[in-house]
């Protein structure tokens, strides 16, 4: 399939600060479907981790009755704050990975690749 009005069929990448932007040949900003799938998987994983820690919190409290629904539902837990903390930690982790990758590429992988 050919497009006569488009000279370049490749995507363009630009970065400002810590953000990488992807544009198609027409200059429109795009997001790859793989990136969206990765984001959905990350969201699912963070929800699982948050649920795990909220449920662990439920097991630590003392309740006189097993039918105490407010206790078992953990109504005192701010779920949004838990998810925000997880997102902040994930962002810090990814920034650290970027710094390690940048340092390795700047150094020519000399300190990362073992000598044989």
TrEMBL record:
Record-linked InterPro entries:
CCDC162 (IPR040401)
- The identity of this protein, by name, is Uncharacterized protein
Q: What is the lineage of its organism?
A: Eukaryota, Metazoa, Chordata, Craniata, Vertebrata
